[in-house]
Structure formats: C-alpha cells, structure tokens
TrEMBL record, chain A:
Belongs to the ThrE exporter (TC 2.A.79) family. It comes from the Bacteria. This is Threonine/Serine exporter ThrE domain-containing protein. It is found in: Cell membrane. The chain crosses the membrane at residues 6-23, 52-71, 78-98, 118-138. Residues 6-133 form the Threonine/Serine exporter ThrE domain.
C-alpha cells in the first residue's frame, strides 16, 4: 500500500511539475513515469538502509538514463524529462530543517544539516553526470552525431 | 550579388531567433549553440561560431564575403519547455531540408509570439498538486495535504505575480516564501493540518529552482563554465531567497 501511494504521488508530483514548466501535453505522462521511476529507485534504496547519498545518486542516474531513452524515442530535449524527475529528490526537507536550526541559533546542527543538503544536491548532479557519460560511451557510438 | 548577401543574413536571423527562443525559455547553453550551428550548417554555411551566455548570444558565420557577426541580448528568461521542444522540432525539419529560410523564420516567429502552453490557473493548480504530493512523499499524513496545497498554490501565485510587478530578481521568491510560510503557520494554528514542518516543505517545493539546477550541471559538464556558474549562482541565490523568507516567518513564530 505504501509502495502504491508513493508511486501514485511521485507520478503526480513529477507530472504537475511538468505542467508548471509547460511541458507539451503528450509528454506529461512520460515525465510522470520518469519521476516515478526515480522516486521509487530512491525509495527502495533508502528503505533497504542504503546511504541517502548513494540512494540519491542511484535515483538520479535512473532518471537521466530513462530521460535519455525517452529523448531519443520522442526526439525531444532530454531536460524535459530530467527536470520533472529530479524534483522529488531535491533535499527540500533537509534544507528546511537546516534553516530552522539556523534561526533557532543551533549552529552546530544547522551546519551539519546544510552540509547534508549540499551533499545530496551534489549527488543529484553526480547521478546526472554519470548517466551522461554512460550515454555517450554506450549509445552515441552507434548513431553518428548530426544525422 | 545583392540577393546573395541578403540570403546570408536570413540564415543568420533564423539561427539567432531560434537560439533566442530556446535560451529565453530554459534550454541548456550547449543545446542553443548546437541548434544554431546546425541550422546554419543545413543552409550551407560550412563554418559558424556561436557563443552563448545566459544574458546574450553572439553568432558569426563565415562565407566567401567578410565574416558576419551579430549580437543578441537576452533580458528576460522564463520557463516554457513547450517552446524549447517546438524549436527543436523545427531545427530537425530544417536539417532534413524541409524548410526554406523564410518558412523557418515565419514558424519561429509564430512560436515566439505563442502564449504559454498552459493557462495561468492550471499552473497554480499544478503547483498546489505538487505541494500536496510532497507531503505524502515525505511520509506525512493525509490531513496535511489540503493546507499544503492551498499554501503552495498561494506561494506560486505570488511568485508569478510579484515577478511581473517588481523586476528585482529573487524578491518574488522571498515574498512568496514569506506568504506561503505565513499561510502554512496560520493553517497549523487553526488546527487545519497537524504537521507544520511537512506543510511548509510542501508549500515551498513549487518554488525550488529545479530547471536551474539541472541546467547548471549540464552546462558545466559540457564545458560551458560561464553559463554553468551563472546558473548555479542563480539557483543558489533563489534557494537563499526562499530560505530567508521562511526564516523570517520562523523568527516571528
């Protein structure tokens, strides 16, 4: 049940974000599935006690790989899929708790939370980078660029 | 001779307008450069150079005549991925040789003038829906969804409206976080939703600069350091503006 709820709401969240960024109507469902796949990857990894940083890398890698496949299939820029996908991974909660600790003059906690939020953002970037490299090494070789 | 000269400028204009639309609506820098050069190439320009930053495009083409260069200033940027993908589709058709420069120019102009793909109120609804979904994704309970949706929709409404009235960057995000946070706190005090933290996080999610983060990373990876750093700084300052807005609320509580 929890899994189903998570799937449904991550799908909705990514698709809604797609609407906010004016993603073409026919691609919204695909945006939603990218977001859902990424969030489920994150969910399963973190539920199985994988480190949050590693889970984030795994999830953003999943998102970007699916994004690249979709971009090829539907001949659209890859960012359309990745943007909506990574939104659920953004460390909003951690950043918020860091900000709250700062305001309460609890600088020790605030710094460690802020560092954590920063590291998670870095992990999102790392996942995207890894998948781009992966894509360039594996897929681009088969199809010459430009044609 | 005269006609040929004009033709060359047409190619430049098509490339530039395509680049301008893409950059203004949230494409990555390398995609803008790539599209512009591909368009020029498909029209038979063997050598072209483009230099794109978030605030301007420089483009030059080399022909038998002296090199021509044009500069285009980009002053306001929004996010409309529909236009990005529409220009991308046109660029593909140009590469396939389906469009003449005049046809391409007209189609690009039409895209530039087109209104937002989704109307305003749908944007607000989408923001509200994102806020609500996040409460659930962050393991919150269902009774917090509705307050988060209302506060999130309100925050997004304000960010769009204030950006139109006050051109100062980051101010709209600050005010939106302030009002969104205040609304969330009000709901919490009224007993409408019991988990203030999750309501506030949900409220702020529509303001997160997701596009900037993604584009900053992709630009840096592609070696566009100026654009990448500029977008990274913009994302960081946006996040700070949101954080400051919410911090003000928290000090008042």
């Amino acid at each position: 049940m929890t899994i189903l709820t998570n799937m449904l709401f991550s799908f909705l969240a990514a698709a809604s974000f797609g609407i906010m960024y004016n993603v073409p109507k026919k691609l919204l469902i695909k945006c939603g599935t990218v977001g859902m796949a990424g969030w489920m990857a994150y969910y399963f990894l973190s539920e199985n006690n994988v480190d949050p940083l590693a889970s984030t890398v795994g999830a953003s890698f999943t998102i970007a790989v699916i994004g690249h496949v979709y971009a090829r299939l539907y001949k659209t820029p890859v960012i359309i899929f990745t943007i909506a996908g990574i939104i659920p991974l953004v460390p909003g909660g951690t950043a918020y708790r860091a900000m709250r600790a700062f305001v309460q003059n609890d600088y020790g906690n605030a710094m460690s939370l802020a560092a954590k939020a920063f590291m998670i953002s870095g992990s999102i970037a790392l996942g995207l980078i890894l998948s781009d490299v992966f894509y360039q090494l594996l897929i681009r070789k088969k199809v010459p660029v430009g044609k | 001779m005269e006609a040929k000269l004009e033709e060359k400028y047409d190619i430049m204009d098509v490339s530039l307008i395509a680049g301008k639309i893409m950059l203004e609506n949230g494409a990555e820098t390398y995609r803008v450069e790539d599209t512009m050069m591909r368009i020029a190439q498909s029209y038979g320009i063997r050598d072209s150079h483009s230099f794109v930053t978030p605030t301007g495009i420089m483009f030059s083409i080399e022909t038998d005549e002296p090199t021509k260069t044009k500069l285009m200033r980009i002053s306001n940027r929004t996010t409309d991925l529909y236009k990005v993908s529409a220009v991308n589709a046109i660029s593909r058709r140009i590469s396939a040789g389906e469009l003449t420069t005049v046809q391409a120019y007209r189609e690009l102009k039409a895209i530039q003038k087109a209104p937002m793909f989704f109307p305003f109120w749908i944007h607000i609804l989408a923001a509200a829906s994102t806020s609500g979904c996040f409460v659930i994704l962050l393991k919150g309970s269902f009774d917090n969804v509705l307050p988060a949706m209302i506060a999130g929709g309100l925050a997004y409404f304000i960010v769009l409206k204030v950006a139109n009235i006050v051109p100062t960057v980051f101010f709209s995000e600050f005010i939106a976080a302030l009002v969104g946070g205040a609304a969330a706190y009000l709901f919490y005090r009224m007993g409408f939703g019991g988990d203030l933290d999750r309501i506030i996080i949900g409220t702020l999610i529509p303001l997160v600069p997701g596009l900037l983060i993604t584009n900053a990373v992709r630009d840096l990876m592609a070696g566009h350091f100026i654009s990448g750093l500029a977008k990274g700084a913009e994302a960081l300052l946006t996040a700070l503006a949101i954080g400051t807005g919410i911090a003000v609320i928290m000090t008042l509580i």
